[in-house]
Amino acid sequence: MSGAKTEYDTDRAIEAMDRLIASYLPAWEGGAAVVAKEAIKSLQSENAKLLRDALRYQWLRSRNIDEISQGGIFAGQTPENVVINGDDLDQVIDEALSNQISGYIPVVTGNKSPPPGDE
What is the tens place of the pLDDT at every residue in 8-50? Predict the structure, then answer.
């Protein structure tokens, strides 16, 4: 995952939006300029939270299960009592989410087939 690149690109886009607001809406003390700035701040905060969640998951997903005897944090599946990572972890999470969230469509990676209707 290239989190730093994504964060950098997002920051550049937000800076560009700030410059546009400053140059095209300088006379407005309220209205669209204030709404746009608040929306940008909200999106920055949401993006930071999503990036942290994605980084946490990628860290968990990439854990080397051969090192479980050394202790640490790993993902497991019960009642099978197995430790899982990588594509196996993605698959069981996608299955659990699709059972809990109506209309959940897993993200397709690698050489897996796309969900029906997305071909």
Answer: 577 788 788 777 777 766 555 566 667 777 888 898 899 999 9
Q: Which residue's entry shows tokens 């709404």?
A: 35
Instruction: Please give the Cα distance from 18 to 38 (Å, whole number).
Output: 11
- Tokens for 70, please give them: 């050394």
What is the distance between the alpha carbons of residues 16 and 92, in angstroms, rounded to a whole number?
Answer: 40
Angle between helices 32-61 and 86-100 (to 10 degrees): 130
Cα–Cα distances in Å, from 75 out to 31, 52, 53, 90, 92?
48, 18, 15, 11, 11
C-alpha span between 96 and 101 (Å, rounded): 9
> Is 76 in a helix, a strand, or coil?
strand
Provide φ and ψ at 80, rounded to 5°: -65, -20
The number of residues in the chain equals: 119
Compute CA 23 distance to the chain's CA centroid, rounded to the nearest angstrom: 32
8 A C-beta contact, residue 1 and residue 58:
yes
